[in-house]
Model the fold of this input.
Amino acid sequence: MSCRRGKTGSFPGSVLSGARAHGPHAFLGRFHLQVSVVKEGREKELFGWVMPGKEKFSITRTTLGHFFKRKRFHFSTDTNGGERAMVPIGNYERVMPLDILPTILLRDLLAGDTDSAQALGCLELDEEDLALCTYVCPGKYEYGPALRSVLTRIEQEG
Done:
């Protein structure tokens, strides 16, 4: 593996569920098995949402990159925009390996509805279980921290 030129960010653990390593937290924990290095995505693209996106990965068929099945994409830390509305278009069901209703559960996690989240099985999940849902989310939400805050609230309430 080679690192491309430019500024990079390092993550102890997986890119999908790891935290950025900087300052006093720039170390491997005892449960980490890898260090991931990813290019910093700081360049802004004017009207990037209008372009067909031959060089962009998409789980939906919204970019030309979807049609290049064998193409190796160069990923970065760029999220291509800020938070948007959560749109239920079937992305979560495609990547969720567990037999749960991910769209409804994720909506309840974002809303902080602990009762409904428990009924949908949030007690059986860990932050890493929602990493792929975070990756494919068109709304750019972080579901791992949302799950952790709901689980902490459930524990505090008893």
Notes: The longest strand covers residues 8-12. The beta strands are 8-12, 35-39.
